[in-house]
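I can't quite decide. Please look over this sequence plus structure tokens:

:::
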Amino acid sequence: MGSAKNKGNTSRQARIEEMRRAERARERRNRILTIVTSTVVVAGLVVGGVVLIRSQSDDGAAAVDSSSPGKFVTGKDGVRTWEGKLGRTHVAKSVKYSSEPPVGGDHNQVWMNCNGDVYTKELKNEHAVHSLEHGAVWVTYTSKASKSDVEALAAKVKQTPYTLMSPDEKQQDPIMLTAWGHQRTVTGAADPNVAKFFETYVQGKQTPEPGAPCTGGLPE
């Protein structure tokens, strides 16, 4: 049994290292793409072109996310899965999601960095949802979570590419884990469901854009 566990750990470490190598390669490509994209945008503005990003009216009010009809269904493993469509349109303004934290839907064109990033302030959902689209797992917690659990979870996130963590006082439970279309509550950092959720959903089958970058976005 010990041998099988060691093999599993070795395989996971190899997978993480491979993701890190791929991330570094994407960073190099992104720098080139940024230069090219900037040139195209400037040229478009010169000739009067308009970049079409669906947005709400200019009154600053949040739009209700009507692009994601469906509902949550809770499985025997405790994971809540969104059954229905999740919008993926880039929007320029805030979105009122049907869950907190949201598991998907229309989102900002800029993602939050999710290469094991731990944030101490609440994030704008529109940016974090974009990270979920890239295959990240988002760990959120309230002030009711113990300091030791928060510290232990932060240490795990920092060691795992395609993850991010932040406080969220609006969520129902002290500690929650979210991936695109999936979410669950855990009792603490030692809950075995934490490792299981990471193993299943970090760059998991649910990822709409597998291999998309988790760096080059917003750092805060």
